[in-house]
Amino acid sequence: MAFLLETLRLGLTNLRLRLLRSILTALGIILGVTAVILMVSIGEGKKIAALEQIERLGARNIIIRSVKPPESVQREQGRQQSWQTKYGITRSDLREIEQLLGEDAIIVPAKEVGGQVLREDRKRTSQSYGTTPELLDVAGLSVARGRYLVDDDLANRTKVAVIGHEVARTLFPFSDPIGNTLRIDQQVFNVVGILKPVGLAGGAGAALIGRDLNQDVHIPITTARQLFGDTIIRRGSGNFSASEVQVHEIYFTAHTRERVLVDADLIRRMMEVRHPRMDDVELIIPYELLQNARQEAMTANLVNGTIAAIALLVGGIGIMNIMLATVTERTREIGIRRALGATRKHIIWQFLVESGVISAIGGLIGVVLGILLSAALPRVVPMMPRLPVIGEWFAEAEMPTQLTTWSIAVAFGVATLIGIAFGLYPARIASLKDPVEALRHD
User: Fold this and answer.
1) Alpha-carbon distance 373 to 377, whole Å?
2) What is the mean pLDDT of the segment spanning 241-252?
3) Nearest 5°: phi and psi at 121?
4) 3-class SS of residue 86
5) Domain ranges of the chain
6) What is the pLDDT, as a whole number, of residue 209?
7) What backbone torsions phi and psi does residue 402 show, to the nearest 5 degrees?
8) The pTM is what?
9) Distances (CA, A) of 231 to 7, 227, 241, 274
10) How far is CA 38 from the centre of its chain?
11) At what angle do helices 19-56 and 2-17 cross, to 10 degrees?
């Protein structure tokens, strides 16, 4: 024990006497450990953000959605009639799905309506849907203020609307939406509720369902059928289009996660019979996507970690180079120690301690830097577009990070092992030097 403590003291003294060289030698390890922790942290943060967005769609949900087929397919099948296109899920499809899955199944239809949503002089392209009260739970939505649709709204075909967070912010910037009115085309609706913000805007969830839920307006589906029919007319600057879609989306909730893929397969086979080419309908299965996202995230972490680990390898090579130079520089010192009774084992331990201490200290500094940068990135990146001069080079973006204990432990452990491994060869070279020849070295 005394021998090890003395060797450690001697190694630290030698490193302190050559402080600048020691710092530069440790720099490769510092950057390598920092890169490993930071890359894994970014990958883990993106993975968690993506998984959260997918999970918000409901791990037990299956979403069947109408999609507009390409124009070439429409012409080929004779479905295009100059200005109007008919496609997607029909009410007959909805009845078949209800019969297939049973009466106790939770099935929620959504029907897109209207061309524009207007409030005084403010207007926006309609993202309005007729639906049922069950959508609130099935889609994982929450009401911020007011209320959601109720069964009486469907029975009485009332003209009420529940609006998304962004709709409330843009159409009612200076007034309370609750109790006020808005128009969907020419139809006036009373606003009875505002939905809480949903974190799907621009993320994986929005890409899956094809829209930002914060822009939605929800009305009773019975009111939607009565007032708007099945034709949606869009007017824009210099263009005009119309489409006929009976049901835009169907949300189905399986009883258990284990049943999701089984039920999805039943629905897919039924829809393939009714829509042979499946070019105007698609199935979105968040649970299936959740599994794929986890596997992709693991692969991304492995790749990112491997790339960052190359920096550790470079740091190890730097330690070996410096230690070899140190052996040559300290040849006379080695001869004196051998002449005074030091064995080859003592010489090996001396140089191994020095290389190990360099890599361990570099690893600790790298861990601290990696943690600090991982904590700073989510705060700094959103501020980049607001910086003077260089702000215009950056787009609005988020950089979620998630520190993991395993990445810190692995990065530090590998850094220390690399220092020892790459210091072993120089240490052996030092121990094999002939004492007499070493003493003659100038």
Assistant:
1) 6
2) 86
3) -95, 5
4) strand
5) 2-53+292-440, 61-253
6) 61
7) -145, 110
8) 0.61
9) 85, 11, 10, 21
10) 15
11) 100
